[in-house]
Amino acid sequence: MKIRLIVGQQVATATLYDNATARDFASLLPLSLTFTDYDTIERVSGLPRKLSTQGAPEGMAPVAGELTHYAPWGNLALFVKPRAYSRSLLPLGKVDEGLPILARPGPYKVRIERVEP
Q: Is the pLDDT of residue 11 over 90?
C-alpha cells in the first residue's frame, strides 16, 4: 500500500510492507502527527495506540528511509540514517521519494494518508 507523508506543502511517498504491523498502522490512517528528533538518526511520534506484533520479527537493523514501530513505546519511528540492529523495532515500510522532506530537524507536523489507486 502506498502512503503519502505531507509536511507543509511538500509531499513524500512511501510503501508499506505486507505484514500485520503495517496493516494495523494503515488502519489508523489518516493521521496527523508531530515528529521530533531522537538520537539524530530518527524522527519519532506517538501513535494513538500500540500496533499489532503478530508474526513480527524480534527486531531489525533499519536503513535510511525505513518506517518502523518501536513496540515497547508504541511509537512510529522514521530513520533518516541507518542504525544497528534493535530489538523490538518492527518494520512498517520504506520511503520511496522525499526523504529530505522528512529528514529535517523536528519538531514538525506530518499528515499521513493512503494514496488511493
A: yes
**Strand partners for 13:** 4, 97
Q: Is 92 helix (H, G, I), strand (E, B) or coil?
A: strand
Q: What angle do CA 99, 49, 47 make, to 5 degrees?
A: 25
* Pick from 61, 64, 73, 62: nearest CA to 103: 64
- Across the chain, what does the average pLDDT equal? 96
Q: With 0.90 as the threshold, say if the pTM is over it.
A: yes
Three cell numbers, residue 67: 518506517
Grid coordinates 511517498 are at which residue? 13
Instruction: Judge contact between 13 and 5, C-beta under 8 A.
Output: yes
How many angstroms separate the CA atoms of 114 and 117, rounded? Answer: 9
Is the pLDDT confidence value at 51 over 90? yes
Q: Which residue has the cell 489507486?
A: 117
